[in-house]
Each structure stands twice: as C-alpha cells, then as structure tokens.
Design goal:
This protein is an alpha+beta fold. About 20% of the residues lie in helices and about 10% in strands. It is built from 2 helices and 4 strands. The strands form 2 sheets. Strands 1-2 form a two-stranded antiparallel ribbon. Strand 3 and strand 4 form a beta hairpin. The chain is flat. It starts with 8 loop residues before the first helix and ends in a 21-residue tail after the last helix.
Length: about 80
C-alpha cells in the first residue's frame, strides 16, 4: 500500500497555475467585422470573399434564372374501413 501525502498549498497552486483561460484570438477583417481567426465572420465573409450562401442561387444567378421554389408535398390520407 502506498502512503498518500497531502499536497501543500504551494504545490496545488503551481499545478493550478496552468488552468487559466486564454483570451480568444480575434481578428478584424477589411470590412471591420471582428471574428475568430481562420473562421468566417457572421456575415459569411472569409479572406475578403463570401463563402457562406446558397450555392443553387449562385448557379441560377450566373445562368440568369430565378431559383425554383420548394413545393411542399401533400400527404395522401388513406381511408380504411373497419370490418365488423
């Protein structure tokens, strides 16, 4: 059996000295928006270009057409008759 020794306050404090939270690395892009490093900003811009958006709209815009609207499918109700 191993005898467990009590840690002194200094030893505990030395171990806990590395537990401090670091401040996040923030950057400001050309538009003045603050964001995390190596991530797109909230308006979808990364390295000066828009990266977040609807790809279908981009293709349709290049072709000069409007994007098709999504049509909700109607659920068909089945009527079952009970046998007596």
């Amino acid at each position: 059996m191993v005898v467990r020794m009590r840690h002194t306050r200094a030893h505990t404090a030395n171990r806990r000295s590395h537990h401090k939270l670091k401040s996040p690395a923030l950057s400001v892009d050309k538009t003045g928006t603050t964001h995390l490093r190596h991530r797109a900003s909230l308006d979808g811009v990364y390295k000066g270009r828009a990266v977040i958006g609807d790809p279908v709209k981009k293709v349709m815009k290049k072709q000069g057409k409007k994007a098709p609207k999504k049509v909700a499918k109607k659920s068909a109700k089945k009527v079952t008759k009970k046998k007596k």
